[in-house]
Write a structure and sequence with these properties.
The structure is a single chain. The chain has a domain of 40 residues. It has two helices and no strands. By secondary structure, it is mostly helical. The longest helix is centred in the first third of the chain and has 36 residues. It starts with a helix and ends with a helix.
């Protein structure tokens, strides 16, 4: 085979491969969008904090410290 035939064949394989990947990705996006509309989002309630005799002022101080630490990052 000459170089032109090999180059043409490689371009055909490239187009076929990239086209297949593109089609699969588009199908995945469509399927995920449809499923997201059909299946309702699960809502989970936050668990209530049980203090077990801990001073509410300590809980407030710890919560404020955690908030400030996360704010710095």
């Amino acid at each position: 085979m000459d170089i032109e035939a090999l180059l043409l064949q490689s371009l055909q394989l490239l187009g076929l491969g990239m086209g297949a990947v593109f089609i699969i990705l588009v199908l995945m996006i469509v399927i995920i969008t449809i499923v997201a509309k059909i299946v309702p989002e699960e809502v989970t309630a936050l668990p209530a904090i049980k203090t077990h005799g801990v001073d509410p002022a300590h809980i407030a101080a710890i919560s404020a410290a955690i908030h400030q630490h996360r704010k710095k990052r």
